[in-house]
Amino acid sequence: MDTSQETREWTTEPWLCVGDFNEILFDHEKLGGHQEGDRNAHFFHSKASSCKQRNKIHRLIDNEGRWCDEDHEIEGVVVDYFQSIFTSEKGNEEELDTVMETFRPCVTLEINEDLLRDFTEEDILEALKQMHPTKSPRPDGMSTFFY
User: Fold this and answer.
1) Residue 42: inside a domain, yes or no?
2) 33: domain range?
């Protein structure tokens, strides 16, 4: 009998075991939670639906002063607006140079060369040694203890 089976015999509550809790949670939780929803599902769904309806943009005025009611028109107004505020026209290079002179570079040429160099096997091992071996798994599903 493994530890998780022994644990199931003396507790009915879910609990977390270092790194891998999927063996201890209830079966319906392993499958992604209650498939039919719990008691609060209807309440939260109705709240989310009312927030979505309240936040919907029904009309906008475009750059020419016309009201836009259709979804595709509203989308166009929004896209045009954000493109206009996040796009700049080519300015005077002298003004740009003047502004750039006020900033002190934080990354020196030496630091930049160090950042751009290829990493070695020793660099990877050093990084792995700095990670805690029993923390949560990495995106590949393995904890650093495996490596």
Assistant:
1) yes
2) 13-56
